[in-house]
Amino acid sequence: MRAADLEQVSSIAAILPDAPHWPQSAYANALNPDSTPRRIALVIVPAAVDPTHRGVFGFTVASLLPPKAELETIAVAASSQRCGLGRRLFHALAGKLEAADAHEILLEVRASNRAALAFYRSLGFVETALRPRYYADPVEDAVLMSLTLG
Questions:
Q1: Among residues 119, 22, 6, 116, which one has the least CA distance to residue 56?
Q2: What is this structure's pTM?
Q3: Rounded CA separation 96/105 (Å)
Q4: In angstroms, rounded to a whole number, what is the distance separating the alpha carbons of residues 110 and 60?
Q5: Which of the residues 72, 108, 134, 135 is marked catalytic?
Q6: I need a labelling partner for 72 at 20 to 30 A (CA). Which of 55, 59, 141, 149 fits?
Q7: Phi and psi for 95 in degrees, rounded to 5?
Q8: Which of 27, 72, 120, 134 is catalytic?
């Protein structure tokens, strides 16, 4: 992810109801190598998918706290979903996290987000706990999941 991608990343997130709606400054902070915790932020762009299309198809952000990392978000534009792009993004991210000495990825997801739960399970994540009433608007439980890398 580069600064030039931030407007498109924010636009994708704003349209997707289950994506975190961070301010653009939060994505910009993810690009700062001096931020704490350090973050890895990736996008999937046309050259990797369709050279005739301009723009960002999806993105992911993870915080790095070796030997663990937290998958903070992964999102694919609605028009490009169900094409394997989320899986490609995740595998690229996992490689970067392993190279940065992370051996486990943690995440949390709304209990009602069945598509995300199925996606994470298909990647090998396992449920580790439930955080009751974690989310607001609407109030909902968070499912905690983890995946061991390598």
A1: 6
A2: 0.90
A3: 12
A4: 17
A5: 108
A6: 55
A7: -60, -45
A8: 120
The token duo for 35 is 């931020």
Q: What is the CA radius of gyration of the chain?
A: 15
Is residue 120 part of the annotated active site? The answer reads yes
β-bridge mates for residue 41, sequence order: 61
Starting at the earlier edge strand, list the strands of the sheet with 68-76: 38-44, 58-65, 68-76, 104-110, 140-148, 126-135
| Tens-digit pLDDT profile for residues 2-60 | 999 999 999 999 999 888 889 989 999 999 989 999 999 999 986 655 555 568 999 99
**How many whole angstroms separate alpha carbon 83 and alpha carbon 149?**
24
Q: How far apart are CA 136 and CA 132, in angstroms?
A: 11
The CA-based diameter of the chain, rounded to the nearest angstrom, is 45
Which residue is it, tokens 């999941």? 145
Q: Where are the beta strands (DSSP E) in the chain?
A: 38-44, 58-65, 68-76, 104-110, 126-135, 140-148
Read off the tokens for 71: 């998958």
